[in-house]
Design brief:
Radius of gyration of chain A: 20 Å
Structural class of chain A: alpha/beta
Number of strands of chain A: 15
Largest sheet of chain A: 7 strands, parallel
Oligomer: homodimer
Strand content of chain A: 15-25%
Largest interface: A-B, 40 and 41 residues
Order of helices and strands of chain A: EHEHEHEHEHEEHEHEHEHEEEHEHEHHH
Distance between the termini of chain A: 31 Å
């Protein structure tokens, strides 16, 4: 990707950093090629290192109490240039305090990038202000023009790279983070691996190929998934393509994964799971389907195997997370690993034989 | 529904009547409350009765060779007022001849209704012409404004009507027609039954409640399905709601049904199937999954039973269609019926015990 980084970002996550509603900010703290991340705004964690709050490891990114402080404390050589909305609230609407922060950011001359459903660029007052201050507002969830969209054709069958779908048993369960860690581990092992992103956070992180699934008109979803995977393959000729999942197959509100299976036609599935989670994210009336049931459903619908389970350790100590992996191994017969805790190398080992022998795979 | 019929329609289906690309026209010939249908345009069948071509039964709707003839032959008391695009080509784009016909229709002072992906109202020349001639262009697939859309909340659980999902083993397989026949048979049997439509054809037919699934931004699909079913229930208090399916679970290009199951939360599934079809509609490289496999996948994903199979007799004689029903009964243990041939009464009998005893059902 040329032109990266585009600038120096302050990530707005007031009241939500470290919660599922802050997952866009989490993604940016963990990695992005699109920006140099200067700081995260959340008054609840002001003074901490964002990486410490998130993963227990310093990331060199300070949490600031407010925008003014974030701008003031930016290093002289890397002044703040971008205000990135790091909130991902259910429903994607910007809270009132957030709107005021966006206004202040534009006043301060920062570009604004947002993955919310509320399009900031369509707020006449903010749009006018941005024009006056000469800054850009990018609503990354804004659907592309229809004439740039693709229908499914079957050209996905030309893709001979190993296609790995990184799906999950719920939304906001860590699919994207695991997908990046897997791609990076594959690359460290000398494999040509690429991520195809499907959400606004992957875009904000500067993924090479991808779409923003949520924002597509439904009838183009299959074709755009196919086109993204196919473009990634034809342009970069990787040995492995990891496809970022969205939602989860059996989630009542975000029944994702299905179109990724149908149109992305993965060869194998890696399934991200949070053992301590009892209900679908945001829907306490809907108990999470048990892991073995979810594996069975995915394998029946896709006719492809789930080859590993990756574990999200939310609400678990490291010892508990490793014990949960052991339980999953016993119950499912599949490898299970917490990749944030123990790395993605064992996943690479699981996939290696499939990459080496493409003829046997097909 | 008040205000129906809205006018007298000429249905444009040049080159496609009687083929899967003509399915919008087929729906309008079979039933619509929105218009009085005067005629269908398809020069290949000019002079025939549209019902004869379609179902072997006269419908009192003539097939005309072109627009001029269709306008000229309209009864004096019901002059043509609407030009309805009855084509549903793969990809939803209007062929060049179709565009010329639209232009001629506007010139002749007809309103234009279209369910294509190509928005006729966004063609500057046609839009200008329509303004000059004082006629309306309605692109029914145009997505609603975001502020009118709903997210999934779980209010679907308030719906105590029996919810029947009419799904299919493929796209363009007759789900909508069967859904209407089922609703009408239920009503004849004294049941309060309502259809919730999910496509542009059901809208053109004047369905009371519904959405146009294909045209929704993906993230709103679950919430809009829930809201349509919930609105239908709260406004009309039916005993049975039949939910029109889209696509099919395992179709690579149109993996529909999944969000209907997740968010519509049907109690039972009726599955429409064309026994003579070997490949997914429009995709000869993708063989249709066998019926038992599709039933297994639907039941596993939905955790609800498929209670009947309805048969589309394309490429089959009546005797062959009935033999196919018998084979399906034997293979699946489920009732199977060709409702166009033998009516939907047996389906009503299958569902009756579930309607009568709602407490046992939940």
């Amino acid at each position: 990707m040329s032109g990266f980084p585009e600038g120096n970002a302050v990530v707005y996550c007031e009241g939500a950093f470290g919660t599922t509603n802050g997952k866009t900010a989490h993604g940016l703290v963990r990695r992005t090629r699109r920006y140099r991340v200067l700081s995260v705004i959340d008054s609840r964690h002001a003074g901490s290192d964002a990486g410490e709050v998130l993963d227990g490891r310093p990331a060199g990114i300070a949490v600031q109490p407010d925008l003014a402080t974030a701008i003031e404390r930016a290093p002289r050589e890397t002044p703040a240039t971008h205000f990135v909305v790091g909130l991902a609230p259910d429903g994607g609407r910007l809270p009132e305090a957030g709107r005021a922060a966006v206004e202040a950011a534009i006043e301060a001359g920062l570009h604004v990038d947002s993955g919310l459903h509320d399009f900031i660029s369509e707020d006449p007052r903010l749009a006018q202000l941005a024009a006056r201050r000469g800054v850009a507002i990018r609503d990354v969830r804004k659907p592309p023009a229809r004439e740039r969209l693709h229908f499914f054709t079957g050209k996905i069958e030309q893709v001979t790279a190993l296609k790995v779908a990184l799906l999950g048993t719920d939304s906001a369960v860590g699919k994207r983070t695991t997908a990046w860690l897997l791609v990076e581990a594959l690359q460290r092992a000398g494999r040509r691996a690429e991520l195809v992103g499907t959400g606004q956070t992957a875009w904000l992180q500067g993924v090479g190929h991808g779409i923003i699934l949520d924002s597509l008109v439904n009838d183009f979803v299959s074709g755009e998934i196919e086109h993204a995977v196919w473009s990634c393959f034809t342009e970069t000729r990787p040995e492995v393509i990891v496809l970022e999942g969205q939602g989860s197959l059996l989630n009542p509100a975000y029944p994702g994964g299905h179109e990724l299976i149908a149109a992305g036609r993965p060869d194998v599935i890696v399934l991200q799971h949070a053992p301590a989670r009892t209900h679908y994210d945001g829907f306490p009336a809907y108990p999470l389907h048990p892991l073995p049931h979810q594996i069975r459903a995915l394998e029946l619908v896709s006719e492809k195997p789930v080859v590993a389970v990756t574990v999200n350790h939310e609400q678990l100590t490291p010892a508990q997370a490793r014990a949960a992996c052991e339980t999953i191994r016993r119950e499912t017969g599949l490898p299970a690993v917490d990749v944030l805790l123990d790395g993605a190398e064992s996943l690479v080992e699981t996939l290696a034989p499939l990459i080496a022998r493409p003829d046997e795979r097909r």
